[in-house]
Backbone:
């Protein structure tokens, strides 16, 4: 976990970037609680499929940005070495993670957004019962 205290226009802001998995995907939302589900595993995915997945699961667009960067969001962007995921604040990439493939980055982005949904809204993605 990475913790950052930043002074902002409205006082101090505490940012917490988690690096542990709190949920399993794909699935649907459920209220938090109970044991943390197993490590995320999934098929290859690209950014268009990830965007569709977030839309289907009603993930607010203000939490993330794909293929670019924007202040105050979890960003996923292409770099010279591959793909990067980070939280952007005051032009600094906080919690920077690098990946060699788009698919690896997309799966990790799912994890990060899932953890953020858990922290902000108390909602988790869970696998449907069969």
Residues:
């Amino acid at each position: 976990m990475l913790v950052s205290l930043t002074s902002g226009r409205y006082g101090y802001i505490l940012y917490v970037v988690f690096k542990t998995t709190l949920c399993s995907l794909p699935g649907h939302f459920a209220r938090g609680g109970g044991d943390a589900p197993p490590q995320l595993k999934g098929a290859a995915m690209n950014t268009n499929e990830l965007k569709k997945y977030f839309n289907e699961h009603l993930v607010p667009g203000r939490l993330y940005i794909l293929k670019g960067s924007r202040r105050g969001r979890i960003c996923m962007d292409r770099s010279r070495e591959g793909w990067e995921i980070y939280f952007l604040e005051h032009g600094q990439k906080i919690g920077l993670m690098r990946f060699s493939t788009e698919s690896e980055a997309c799966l990790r982005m799912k994890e990060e957004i899932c953890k953020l949904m858990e922290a902000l809204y108390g909602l988790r993605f869970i696998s449907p019962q069969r």
In short: The radius of gyration is 15 Å. The first strand starts at residue 2 and ends at 8.
